[in-house]
Amino acid sequence: MHRVITAKPLTGYRLHLTFADGTAGEVDLSGIAFSGGIFDPLRDPQYFGRVTVNDDTWTIEWPNGADVCPDVLYKLATAHAGEPIPAK
Predict the structure, then answer these.
(1) Partner of 67 for a Cys bridge, out of 34, 52, 61, 80, CB 3.0 to 4.6 A?
(2) Is residue 88 part of a domain?
(3) Which CATH number characterizes residue 40's domain?
(4) Contact 74, 23 (CB under 8 A)
């Protein structure tokens, strides 16, 4: 499992992430932000910007408990840099 060590909010529902192995990249989470459910609050750019890194789960999370698997984030940061995640 990959470990996220830093997450910096950018414009447009994007984050710049750094992983424990030194890999860094941007991910576009606009698809997740508009996918509904627990991710609804992420539509608000100010709320989206409240992202933190949870040191116990090694991934990003928001105050309401919404999170994204660190392996998914790693794949997006390395293979799909800059492309949005399609909403389900």
Answers:
(1) 61
(2) no
(3) 3.30.2020.10
(4) yes
